[in-house]
Amino acid sequence: MNIEHLRMYCLQKPGVEESFPFDESTLVFKVGGKIFLLLSLTSNPIQFNVKCDPEKAIELREAYDCVLPGYHMSKKHWNTIIHNGSVNDTYIKEWIDHSYDLVFSGLSKKIKEQLIP
Fold this sequence. Notes:
InterPro entries: YjbR, YjbR-like_sf, YjbR/MT2646/Rv2570-like. It contains four helices and six strands. By secondary structure, the chain is an alpha+beta fold. A hairpin with a 2-residue loop joins strand 2 and strand 3. It has a single domain, classed as Aspartate Aminotransferase, domain 1 (Alpha-Beta Complex), CATH 3.90.1150.
């Protein structure tokens, strides 16, 4: 999965917006105004941060060398994924989905209804 595929995967989710709120090299994806993925456009290999359930975050870090505590984020709730080819795209998509679902589930009922009529 390259940057453009990752970007398109995120954007196909309901209510997702992309922006550059921090700098021109960090692409941020939000749902309901809340961040669920930060993507570095300058890293090689591709690196991105995703939100994660704290227990699952620890399990993933122990199981996969490409999963690290979230860079510049809460280490308890965020993982940095280094997409170096050591895991297949199915896992990458699962981790993105998990992040999106966590953030979406925390939104108010009113915002959820606005995003998904």
